[in-house]
Amino acid sequence: MERIVSGMLAFRDKYMFWLDIPSVTIVDVVEIMLIAFLLYSILVWIKNTRAWALFKGIIVIVVFVLVAALFQMNTILWLAGRLINVGIIALAVIFQPELRKALDQLGRKRFFVGFFSGDPDRSVKRFTERTVNEMVKATYEMAKVKTGALIVVEKDIVLTEYERTGIPLDSLISSQLLINIFEKNTPLHDGAIIVRGNRVVSATCYLPLSDNMELDKELGTRHRAAIGVSEVSDSLTIIVSEETGAVSAAMGGRIRRQLTREELKKQLMELADAGYEKSRWRKLIRRSSHGETSVESDNE
Predict the structure, then answer these.
(1) Which of 164, 148, 173, 161 has the alpha carbon at shortest distance from 233?
(2) What is the distance between the alpha carbons of residues 155 and 196, in angstroms, rounded to a whole number?
(3) Of 205, 178, 210, the residue nearest 191 (C-alpha)
(4) Where are the domains of the chain?
(5) Residue 234 three-state SS
(6) Taking the complete model, does pTM exceed 0.70, yes or no?
(7) How far apart are CA 246 and CA 143, in angstroms?
(8) So what's the pLDDT on residue 250?
(9) Which residue of 18, 44, 219, 258 has the lowest C-beta tally within 10 Å?
């Protein structure tokens, strides 16, 4: 063994003397691991908040500046250099709710549980077909009697900041539960409910109103709130009009009105299937990385 090591060192000194290989100590390895872990955790935190969409926009701007630098577009580079300080301040203002929440978790000693949560599937899971059927059934039962309703179905972006504005429930979804929540003159009927997975996690939640000036003037506060939360997250919001009983759905800042039962069910099933495929591929990747082989069950 000593001969092999000495031979390798002699080869390096004779033929690779020009290559400057820095010495790596245990401290350096630990430092690299800590930096990698910190960077990964920050990216996970960004992914689980509305900051993810803004972060993707920043990446586009950075790529644009790199292209400008490649082709020596001096005017664009001059503007970018002057705006970078303003941009840093703007990011602090835009991400203020998320930064405050992260610092709050750190102060409460939940930093490693909440901020460094490495498994997004643990907090955000899609729903079953039974949940879809129960939501559709309740929606159109309320539509028949013109009971106003606002149901926010969470997707990838966690809606914790809006969940906290309401009353926590953590109840398994059923059509009877949803109808009872939105029944007029009941304590929980005012505001929105947030659905995470197969459960209602909060009721009487306040949602941000959309400030889109191009929206139809006929849309009331309930519809504007549904569009507003869809603009800052990837959620799907079901709206039942109290005036007409019409069913609508808002997603990605857009609203689809006068939905039929089949159209609403199809939209919810697509949302559920997307979550299943994502978690299924994550499981396959994890299993393959550990050298395991298995057959995915259709009922998983």
Answers:
(1) 161
(2) 8
(3) 205
(4) 21-113, 129-278
(5) coil
(6) no
(7) 6
(8) 93
(9) 18
